[in-house]
Amino acid sequence: MQWVWTAMDPVHKLLLVAQVGPRTRDMACLVVHALCQWLAPGCVPAFSSDGLMHYFTALTAHWGSWQVQAQGKRVWQVAANLLYAQVVKQYCRRKLAQVVRRLLLGTQAAWEAALQATGTRGSINTAFVERLNPSLRSGQALTLRQSLAALTRRTLCLAKTKRHLQLRLNAYLVYYNLVREHMTLQTTPACSAGLTDHAWSWEEFLTFRLRPEQLAAVVS
Predict the structure, then answer these.
(1) Which residues does 208 contact at the CB level (< 8 Å), separation at least 6?
(2) Is 14 exposed, middle or buried (0-12, 13-18, 19+ CB in 10 A)?
(3) Contact status, residue 8 vs residue 34, Cβ threshold 8 Å
(4) Tell me: the pLDDT tens digits for 144-195?
(5) Which of 119, 89, 134, 148 is nearest to 10 (CA)?
(6) pLDDT in tens, 4-46
(7) 64-73 as b/e, with b when 16 or more CB fall inside 10 Å?
(8) Angle at 118 (CA atoms; ends 126, 98), nearest 5 degrees
(9) Sign of the C-alpha dihedral, residues 171, 19, 13, 35?
(10) CA distance to 48, 90, 96, 169, 179, per residue, from 100 (Å)
(11) Which positions ≥6 away from 206 have C-beta within 8 Å?
């Protein structure tokens, strides 16, 4: 079974990663590695996710450094400022029975301070990415499922291969960030984040030329 992995910035509503793959540790590391390409050097965001523990492994493997102990042994030290929380939803007969919020890395005070500094709520939640990503349990027509026919159930447009679905997600990621104006932002996520000075038109979107190495990365 293949899943759609996503990562987003809740402040500017940027869709940072959209990858297709199984729910494995290797895939989690691949997604986190792709996310790192968006971040400024030295940036350590506060992360929240569902209860899949592979995220913990991937995050702690990417944020940290090797330290030499007194005996000369090298050990991996996770970054002290790495913040990571989970929202675990428990279901009973397809109905939400309980929501457990837990902080795995960092302190509650540090978590609240980090989120409040960005103007978002200090509570642990995954509401933004849940609204974006298809939900297999709830069956709601969320953003990706509404926008990509390849993710819609019972349709002739359903993606038949992982590669074709990934290519559609790649195109939608560009459209979502550069062309589609977000209702609460009154502009595109890319404009809000300062990555571009205007919302792209469809003509700009469809005629933009990628460099050969960029094109190879997109279609691989």
Answers:
(1) none
(2) buried
(3) no
(4) 888 888 887 777 888 888 998 999 999 999 999 999 999 889 999 999 999 9
(5) 119
(6) 999 999 889 999 999 999 999 999 999 999 999 889 888 999 9
(7) eeeeeeeeee
(8) 20
(9) negative
(10) 13, 8, 11, 31, 36
(11) none
The amino acid at residue 12 is H
Dmax over CA atoms of the chain, in Å, equals 63
199: left (phi over 0), alpha (psi -120 to 50) or beta: beta
Tokens 């987003």 — which residue? 8
**Nearest of 101, 105, 125 to residue 59 by alpha carbon:** 105
Single-letter amino acid code for the residue at 40 = A
